[in-house]
Amino acid sequence: MILAFYNSGFYKLFLVLHLLSVVIGFGGITVVGFVGAASQGYKGPAGQAIFDTSQRIGRIVEFFIYAVPVFGIALLFISTTGGHHVFWFDQTWVSISLLLYIATVGFVHALHLPNLRRMGVLIGEINAGPPPTGGPPPQAAELEERGKRAGLYGAISNMAWVAVLVLMVAKPGL
């Protein structure tokens, strides 16, 4: 059994892994949102390529987002000194952060990701069909509406991640 204590090398290793997951996961998904939004400025296959690339990168950074609570919870268990946990689930900042994380991941999976997948389908349909004669393709209106929703959902999830960050830094209730 490895005995680890708060501020030990083992603790610091898990803290670095936790912070790297935060930076790559949440930073990456924020950048992906901007890239996805920028794809609207390009028509045809170029816009679809940018959108598809942003979605592929999003799927990669998701793994880092899922690693955040794994390393964070490990830190809780490692954070012992004198036989007592320095940080634990009963502290306000820990419990609220974890609940907010779970709620936000649920929100993203229930609303944001399905919306983005549908946008990808619509972009593909628009690009697969013949150029419209005398007006926009029938999918254009739904795509525009879903683009607005994607912006709203992305903003909500980003605000939630910022709230978790503030809780992690301020540690209310500690």
Can you tell me about this structure?
The chain has four helices and two strands, in the order ααββαα. It is an all-alpha fold and 174 residues long. A two-stranded antiparallel ribbon has the order 1-2. A hairpin with a 2-residue loop joins strand 1 and strand 2. Helix 1 packs antiparallel against helix 2 and helix 2 packs antiparallel against helix 3. The longest helix has 37 residues. The mean pLDDT is 92.
Strand order of the largest sheet: 1-2
Unreliable stretches covering 5 or more consecutive residues: none
Question: How big is the Rg?
Answer: 21 Å
Describe the global form.
elongated
Distance between the termini: 29 Å
Average residue pLDDT = 92
Number of helices: 4
Percentage of residues in DSSP E strands: under 5%
Helix content: over 70%
State the secondary-structure class: mainly alpha
The SSE order reads HHEEHH
E-strand count: 2
Give the oligomeric state of the chains in this entry, treating copies of one chain as homo and distinct chains as hetero.
single chain
The major beta sheet can be summarized as: 2 strands, antiparallel
